[in-house]
Amino acid sequence: MIERLAILGVGLIGGSVALALKRAGQVRHVVGYGRSRANLDEALALGVIDEIADRPESAVDGADRVLLAVPVGAMAATFAGIADHLAADVLITDAGSTKQNVIAAARAGLGARIARFVPAHPIAGAERSGASAARADLYDGRNVILTPLPENALDDTAAIAGLWQVCGAQVAEMAAAEHDSIFAAVSHLPHLAAFALVDELASRPQAGLFFRHAGSGFRDFTRIAGSSPEMWRDIALANRPALTAELDAYIARLSAYRDALAAGDAGTLMQSFTRASLARSRWQPGDTLEEDE
Amino acid sequence: MIERLAILGVGLIGGSVALALKRAGQVRHVVGYGRSRANLDEALALGVIDEIADRPESAVDGADRVLLAVPVGAMAATFAGIADHLAADVLITDAGSTKQNVIAAARAGLGARIARFVPAHPIAGAERSGASAARADLYDGRNVILTPLPENALDDTAAIAGLWQVCGAQVAEMAAAEHDSIFAAVSHLPHLAAFALVDELASRPQAGLFFRHAGSGFRDFTRIAGSSPEMWRDIALANRPALTAELDAYIARLSAYRDALAAGDAGTLMQSFTRASLARSRWQPGDTLEEDE
Question: Is the pLDDT of residue B54 over 80?
């Protein structure tokens, strides 16, 4: 049983953790802090949180569990702000989509208390955002990836794994570098590729004509280009080394297509298209995560 | 009323034209030719066609309308093969996804008879292929783009427009170059971009790990990478100049992202992501074509 849970960032992600823990009867009191007072008022009115904190440091005061569910670009300031106000036995987790960057921010902010932080990435999301979008079942059957630190005690990692499992999630562990490299490839790169295509076409004088003739292939390919620009700017910058490497590899492959096309090299195109088509057809999206952020 | 319709390539696209014209009572006799005898036998058994031709030239013998629904890579040989066997009053149309290339093939094959050919691109498709997938309602409410030639008589263009309208389609006209440049941008480039991403990830040692963690963003972004490699090889080569230019523009934009990311230039990323997100959110896919090929 969690006595006092501090949630920093009471949006869809943070609010849904509160509701899921309440659903399971595993939390006694939830204190929320966030930038928008209106959102916090709504969270309180909806029973997502039980108390509004005016500042991050008062939210974590006396808390035995702390969840950082702020944008990854705001993690560093948040860790630094709470460091001197944490209880001795506190355990901290987060919900950031990138991990090496968040861990670096935690090391800088928490200093010697770094062992209290067990990093996590819940693979869940939804179209809507804010506390009013929070749902007790958001994490049911979803994956949460923990990237434990060398400093974490096994019991503490297990306790944070348990917190996410109580929320309904399946928990997996991997190294932070591996996490960032996987999500750079399967999530961050596709988002940038979709943003790039839509901005490229939207910037042209004939943009209206293009969009008028775009069909279902374009629709699906570009769906993620409708995502939050702020969130993806933060994620891109937070995962810079891995994402830069992915962009380089992708640009190289598109350049190879370009050269094959210019040379009329049907064989190279056919080989690559065939490998891609087979791999995509064999992949069963139903076996995988519902959302990637 | 069409007396004798010759369909060269009795697949989903060609077969559905036959069924749609029969549904409207606007065709008396349909002769089909194709590479696969089994597919032709099935088309005959299903009533898609009324007669099987052994060769393209016997299919068009005495036909007042001819539809070329073969892959764009097979258009040149088909035009050349039928040229000397066409009736004087025949009108020919096609269903190719690229137009300048098909028109060049028609000019080379038909010579002085080029005026009898009114190029068309029906924007329709489905998951399944072959004559057994043909449906009388495939073109209902779909767009068909005509790219008439300077040599076409207005009456002949109107007659081919009428043929597609009887199939249930909405007919629009534009120049072939404009058609190819629009579809290079909104359809052909996204297909190559999806093939490139999937092949890039599938080629790596950690491919299994990537696919295991890929979510709904990846699923939608890469859906079109499951398309037919042969068809897209043909389309890419057939639309080489326009598609090469699109690949260049896309690579340049991704390279700008890469440089902004490496430089930590949050502003450039934010501006582009914001323009893309707004453009994508304003676009109403429901207003557009159901399928792009």
Answer: yes
Nearest residue, CB atoms, A217 vs list B191, B264, B274: B191
- Per residue in B168-185, pLDDT tens? 999 999 999 999 999 999
Q: Which positions in chain A touch B284 (Cβ < 8 Å)?
A: none
Task: Enter the DSSP assignment of B127.
Answer: S
The answer to whether A186 contacts B206, with C-beta atoms less than 8 Å apart, is no
How many whole angstroms separate alpha carbon A276 and alpha carbon A272? 6
Q: Which of residues 9-28 of A touch B (CB under 8 A)?
A: none
Residue in B216, B213, B197, B221 with CA at minimum distance from that of residue A178:
B213
User: Alpha carbon of B260 to those of A43, A197, A233: distances in Å?
Assistant: 37, 16, 11
How many CA atoms within 13 Å lie on the side-chain side of B27? 28
Task: Please tell me which of the candidates A203, A215, A222 has its beta carbon nearest to residue B280.
Answer: A222
Q: Measure the CA–CA gap between A156 and A162, rounded to whole angstroms.
A: 10
Q: What angle do CA A281, A287, A289 make, to 5 degrees?
A: 110
Which residue out of B191, B227, B248, B261 would a mutagenesis test of the A interface target, given it has the greatest number of A Cβ atoms within 10 Å? B261
The two three-digit tokens of residue A42, written as one number? 């709504």
CB–CB contacts below 8 A, A to B: 302
* Pairing, β B143-146 against β B120-122: antiparallel
Comparing CA positions, the residue from B144, B160, B141, B186 lying closest to residue B280 is B186
A197 and A222 Cβ atoms separated by less than 8 Å: yes
**Complex ipTM, two decimals?**
0.88
* B223: chain A residues, CB-CB within 8 Å: 217, 220-221, 280
Residue B285: its pLDDT value, please?
63
CA-nearest of A224, A232, A238 to A98 is A238
- Under 8 Å between Cβ of A250 and B250: no
The DSSP secondary structure of A106-163, one letter per residue, reads: HHHHHGGGGGGEE-EEE----S--SGGG--TTTTTT-EEEE---TTS-HHHHHHHHHH
Kindly state the percentage of chain B with pLDDT values over 90. Answer: 92
Residue A280's pLDDT band, with cuts at 50, 70 and 90, is very high
> Is the whole-model pTM more than 0.90?
no
Nearest CA in chain B to A172: B213
Q: Exposed/middle/buried for B1, CB within 10 Å: 0-12, 13-18, 19+?
A: exposed
